[in-house]
Prior knowledge:
This protein is of the alpha+beta class. It is about 30% helix and about 30% strand. It has helices spanning about 25-30, 40-45, 60-75, 100-105, 120-135, 225-245, 265-275, 285-290, 295-305; strands at about 10-20, 25, 50, 85, 110-115, 140-150, 165-175, 180-190, 195, 200-210, 210-220, 220-225, 255-260, 315-320, 325-330. Strands 1-7-6-4-5 form a five-stranded mixed beta sheet, sandwiched between helices. Strands 8-15-14-13 form a four-stranded mixed beta sheet, sandwiched between helices. The protein has a two-stranded antiparallel ribbon with strand order 2-3. Strand 10 (about 200-210) and strand 11 form a beta hairpin. It binds oxa(dethia)-CoA (UT7).
Amino acid sequence: MIDKDTKLAFVQLTGVGKAIPDQVLTNDHLATLVATSDEWISSRTGIKQRRVLAPGQSLTKLATIAAHNALQQAGRSALDVDLLILATSTPEDLFGGATRVQQELGAARAVAFDLTAACSGFIFALATASQYIQTGKYQTVLVIGADALSRWTDWTDRTTCVLFGDAAGAVVLESAATPGLIGFELRSDGIGSEDLAIASQTEPIPLTTGIAASRAHFSTLAMNGSQVYRFAVAAVPDLIQKTLLQHDISPEQVKGYFLHQANQRILDAVAQRLNIPSERVATNVARYGNTSSASIPLVLEEWSSSDRLQPEDLIVLAGFGAGLSWGAMVARWGRF
Ligand code: UT7
């Protein structure tokens, strides 16, 4: 169905799925690796434990399971998928991981590509996916967020190694008769690009007289935590407010806020800034830590599968992180 004013097709978010690795790494485990404690990690971040992929386990497999679960909830098969977007900063192939997920899932008709925007990747990918549906190019799009930051963690750095976990989540978007997606806003600011990075490093490779190339590899994750914290608590509620205002929706009308899970203190600060009860801001950071591009579908899936969320409920999704980048989306959940 086409919106008479904008001439754009309507988009609904019709299914969500998740997948997590089996290995559980607790705060007490981390206290045996670095000078930290359960007390420090819990009080500063809200995190109690996180999941970590074991050697030999595959992020592609995790992404495929999350995608399968999302399709099942949407009542669609892999062959219905026209487009698959994999939001990840930790692909198992630098050329991209999306086609491997496409292959494992059996989404033979889909075109598949990666999108990198760190912890904002899922929101950026949802926004991208929605455009293909609104313009009528595709009807069914699968957006997957999957990251294994444990592979890029410096396990001797207590300021970062306690924060991250591995996971995958996915959402199905479909062309629909009534509007689910209401609007979104995306932002980037490269001034903060060094505040959170997994930087590439190069070493010279002499080739022949007067000519040299270089070989690249990536260093481990580095973050200026307090700088990113200040950015998040200011920029995220501000963008959510702007996005809601654009559509004449007040923060109280929204049933659930599904934000990137970086720190419980950030989630509480957003609730306070929006003047909403903290229970409206979904959280599972205690159990999974910061799972980067997977965090939003991971926490959305919990509300959807426990019936805390009903079709047509108003939701806000918001991501933020390296880039710096941030984005907010307002929608009505589900197929209705
Ligand atoms: O996903 C992308 C977005 N990421 C984020 O949004 C992360 C945003 N940042 C944060 O969540 C917080 O800044 C952190 C959780 C990373 C850090 O919390 P903080 O309250 O900002 O702590 P801090 O960095 O100011 O450090 C306070 C103290 C320091 O010691 P001194 O200098 O005061 O003696 C740190 O060395 O805590 C120390 N510290 C630790 N102590 C025990 C830092 N990490 C640890 C640790 N255990 N794991």
